[in-house]
Amino acid sequence: MISTNKLIHLFQFVILVCLLQGNTQNVVHCYFCKEIIKSKYIIVDSKAFHQEHFLCKSCNKPITGSFTRKDENYFHPECLSQIVGLVCEYCKKIIQGEYLVNENKKYHKLCFENFVVPKCAVCKSPLVGEYREDIYHNKYHAYHSRDLYICDCCDRIICDAITNGGKTYNDGRHICNICYSSAIFEQKQFEKLLEKVSFKLNTFGMNFNLNSIKIKGVDKNVLRNAAKIFTESTQGYCQSETTGNYLNERLISQKIMHTIFVLNWIPSLHIESIIAHELAHAWIYEKGKKNLSPKTLEGSCNFVSYTYLKSIGQSAAYEIIKMIEMDPDPNYGKGFLEIRDKFGYKPFSDFLAFLRNN
């Protein structure tokens, strides 16, 4: 928290110059030397001084202008500043007048605002007062979030300075140009990403029959209609159905089909993260326990996405991980943290054994 202090009381006294008259009633003695003053003199705090005897307690030189008082002694302002340590941390020059304190360091107000305090990534003005910081370390005034859109994909604030602007889709989503530059639009690309993610998860011990899984890149309106539970943060949904083959009213076989809906027009790595989450739903539907709480279910699926992203090892992957970790939702966010605390340092097979329907 930045606080403002004031320099020890700074007084600007008008030097009172007096001419000594000839009669004895006007005899004045110098407070310093005790001698009779026979010429011009200075009065401070009802005390008279020869002009050359009004001295700075620190440097012992005459004070001819403004001064400060401390413990009944008088100082040049800059001398007292040196004594009490009022030196600007940035420019190393004496502080006179108001100053700012940040992390127990003192600064001239202008030095702090121009060279020390971080600048707003949106408007480049000093960040004095309340501000926010995203996971990409962009700092900006809090009030900008009321005037500008936040990217529905990466959570950056959309502006020229940070994202080079952005786009608004027909379904109401706001996407920054950083995300838009690597967005996926074609259905074939979604199918390739499904193959990529399922192959990686297979190495973790999660096996999938891709013949029973379809993927669709859709807009927000289609996803809303498909999902049983939909919030503004929903990015994917796995629709699982079981159909049976009967002979003489006896079940002889059954078939499971999964349709994964994923938001389109966002970067491939974000799509991969969503696919990993929804594939986990498909795996649990077929092989997992049926009585998992929503917190355990969604937390577990996010743990699969987290593990997939960690295996990629890219900086962009860790940015998505950060978003998973900071998710305020009690199921997706807190549920994930609880699962990670329990299985994050154990073999992935232990996690699958926990989910498996034994």
In short:
With 358 residues, the chain is α+β, with helices and mostly antiparallel strands. Helix content is 34%, strand content 20%. A hairpin with a 2-residue loop joins strand 7 and strand 8 (105-108).
How large is the count of helical segments?
12
| Major beta-sheet overview | 3 strands, antiparallel
> Helical percent range?
25-40%
Count of folded domains: 3
Widest β-sheet, arrangement of strands? 1-7-8
Note down, in words, how this protein is organized.
With 358 residues, this protein is α+β, with helices and mostly antiparallel strands. The protein has three domains: 1-116, Cysteine Rich Protein (Ribbon); 131-180, no CATH class; 187-355, no CATH class. It has twelve helices and 15 strands. A hairpin with a 2-residue loop joins strand 7 (99-102) and strand 8 (105-108). Helix 6 crosses helix 8, helix 8 (268-287) packs across helix 9 (294-312) and helix 9 runs antiparallel to helix 10. It is elongated.
Layout of strands and helices, then pairs:
Blueprint lengths: L2 E3 L4 E2 L29 E4 L2 E4 L16 E4 L2 E3 L1 H7 L15 E4 L2 E4 H8 L14 E3 L5 E3 L2 H4 L12 H4 L2 E3 L5 E3 H4 L6 H17 L9 E6 L1 H7 L9 E12 L2 E14 L4 H20 L6 H19 L2 H11 L4 H14 L4 H8 L3
Parallel strand pairs: 13-15
Antiparallel strand pairs: 1-7, 2-5, 3-4, 5-6, 7-8, 9-10, 11-12, 14-15
